[in-house]
Amino acid sequence: MEIYTTFTRPADIPASVSSNRKMLLFIGTCKPELMNKLSAFGYVGTWVENLFMAREELLKWACEVTHAPFSERVPLSAIFCDIHFPVQEIKSFLNDIQQISIFQEVPFFLMLKKQHSIKEAHHYQFRIQQINDSIYTDSNPFVIDHKIRFYQHFNKIRLQHPGVVMGVEPESLKLKIDNAFKRIFDIAGGFLLLLILSPLFLLIAIAIKLDSPGPVFYVSLRAGKGFRLFKFYKFRTMVRDADLRLSEIEKLNKYQSDQQQSPKFVKVKNDPRVTRVGRLLRKTSLDELPQLFNVIKGDMSLVGNRPLPVYEAVTLTTDLYSTRFIAPAGITGLWQIRKNKKPDMSVEERTNLDVYYARKRNFISDVRILFSTPFAMIQKEEL
């Protein structure tokens, strides 16, 4: 199995970034290696040893910001905290600082080192819902910078629309039942489909190996609900070095845009990197089947918004577009069942459908979308 990742993409640092200082607070032992990376993006860091000292530093910071002239104010961009502090201490710390209005939208990240597991991070995030995400200290600074900016927008939306973003206020009984039905349906449906389709999986694997050299599965990092990254599985439909040849087909991209702030998607008609078996798999959507493993793991749902590659997801950090990330990632969704009716759908129309689904979704609408999907599987255009 081969893993392709967009984390090696070079950082595109604006020329004006050095003139706009952005402050970060590091709590614990995570300061040195990460701060050196982020300084290139205009970030300046303050480091403290523990959560008690962090409280004092933030109170002092709040006083300075309040009394400083507006032009001299340097806002706090994010807080990074080592994972070794007890859950209850972190929870108490976050409850205290979020009583201060200027810190309510500040993203909070758990810092992990290689010896820490994602399971540990999930344990913290399940118990402390104010934690936005977990980041390894050796992550690419380009990704961290965009995560900071995304969660600034995400937290703003979370405060403005507490009923839309789960985890901010206690869930209603109706919402709890709806989510429970959705998860039960995902697990039961995922296992049943995997059992029924296992012979087809074997035939597709053999066809891929006979058609071209390389792994059977394509694995990439995708951004799902809350911009959380996970390993995304598909049958390989392209040549082995397809990711390295992305620049070669840039001019063929259907979703090119001259506007720098516009969301970015990559979709190429008659992509020369696609193999013969790959064209058949894409035309019938059979390349999507391994995502059933993502559904069972909980990374995705059967129905939701499409999980995006990092280079696409980081362009959706405006207040409007980032709303799409409050919905779970899904194998199929509203965009998939409507694209055949309008194959030339623009980026904005596609993203607006994602936003609409994120705000209006419920279990009944998910069932309708799921049962409409077979009619949309035979696609009218070459992908």
TrEMBL record:
The keyword Transmembrane helix applies. Keywords: Membrane, Transferase, Transmembrane, Transmembrane helix. The keyword Membrane applies. InterPro entries: Bact_transf (IPR003362). The chain crosses the membrane at residues 184-208. GO terms for molecular function: phosphotransferase activity, for other substituted phosphate groups. It holds the Pfam family Bac_transf. Residues 182-378 form the Bacterial sugar transferase domain. Belongs to the bacterial sugar transferase family. PANTHER family: COLANIC BIOSYNTHESIS UDP-GLUCOSE LIPID CARRIER TRANSFERASE, UNDECAPRENYL-PHOSPHATE N-ACETYLGALACTOSAMINYL 1-PHOSPHATE TRANSFERASE-RELATED. This is Sugar transferase involved in LPS biosynthesis (Colanic, teichoic acid). The lineage of its organism: Bacteria, Pseudomonadati, Bacteroidota, Chitinophagia, Chitinophagales.
